[in-house]
Design a protein that fits this description.
The chain is mostly helical. 59% of the residues lie in helices and 9% in strands.
Length: 294
């Protein structure tokens, strides 16, 4: 049974944005060696882990996820980029969360929730892409088939599902009609959603144990993982945790959306079913999630 402190921590976590995302943009002049940009560190509470992702657009226009730690300075965060691109100068200005997401300008309460959902799905898809490109593919030749299966086999179906879901939610936001757009119906199109995440929850225990064994006994593996991460890329442990965290984030956003939806709206009944399923999934795995994040 969870303690009162644990339950309080969980409730607090549900009301925060679990991904911390930032944006770095290049200057207009292609000859300018100054990195200009926007850095947006979304709020974190005590229930979150020590690492979080920063979404970056590099000086050449290419996207990349950076890995940040609590109390890390902006200088440390962008040090790898500055070295890689030979930047002798850079400027970073900070903006509040809602400025980046532009949520305050949206008057429709439901659309504001959906825009936040689109943003969360975009970031999540970037994380899954990084997991495959930085680790899953390169590690095929460095792990046994069984070890590779333990770490990555259950991520691929989630990646496919999440990509399709993101496209549909983004399309709904772009073609928004306050009276008729239904978000609950989108999630209803993916009946295997719960099953896939349940499978991942179960597999994640074994993945964590394997990572623990590797840290203790396989210096070659850990050296590779460290080199892949470098000073500006997400670490493997953080990326493997993302599906667990994303479920909590979706439950929070969709619950908020339901609160903003009238019971007479055509989306209400289906959305209520979706939110109920998310809440049950979170409740079923509550203690496991807390353990995984600590």
């Amino acid at each position: 049974m969870a303690t009162a402190a644990t339950s309080a921590k969980t409730r607090q976590r549900k009301h925060s944005f679990s991904s911390s995302i930032s944006l770095l943009n290049r200057t207009r002049s292609m000859t300018d060696q100054t990195l200009l940009g926007v850095l947006n560190i979304l709020r974190m509470d005590e229930g979150q882990g020590h690492s979080f992702m920063v979404k970056a657009i590099l000086p050449d226009g290419k996207p990349r996820l950076l890995s940040a730690e609590r109390n890390m300075t902006v200088r440390d965060l962008v040090a790898g980029i500055c070295q890689e691109y030979n930047l002798t100068n850079y400027q970073v200005r900070t903006l509040p969360e809602k400025t980046l997401l532009n949520l305050e300008a949206i008057k429709d309460d439901r659309l504001r929730c959906v825009k936040e959902l689109v943003y969360a799905e975009e970031v999540y898809n970037d994380c899954l892409k990084s997991l495959f490109e930085l680790y899953a593919e390169p590690l095929k030749s460095k792990l046994s088939r069984a070890e590779h299966h333990t770490l990555f086999a259950h991520v691929e179906p989630i990646c496919t599902l999440s990509s399709s879901l993101y496209v549909k939610v983004e399309e709904a936001a772009n073609n928004w009609n306050s009276a008729s757009t239904a978000i609950g119906a989108i999630y209803a199109e993916f009946p295997l959603f719960r099953e896939m995440y349940e499978d991942y929850y179960l597999a994640f225990k074994f993945a964590r144990n394997l990572m623990r064994q590797k840290r203790e006994n396989d210096s070659e593996f850990m050296t590779f993982v460290h080199n892949q991460r470098g000073s500006h890329r997400p670490q493997l442990d953080s990326l493997l945790l993302k599906p667990v965290q994303h479920l909590l984030e979706c439950e929070r956003i969709l619950s908020n959306l339901l609160e903003k939806t009238s019971e007479t709206h055509r989306d209400y009944a289906e959305l209520a079913k979706v939110v109920s399923k998310f809440k049950q999934m979170v409740k079923d795995r509550e203690e496991e999630v807390i353990e995984a994040e600590n």
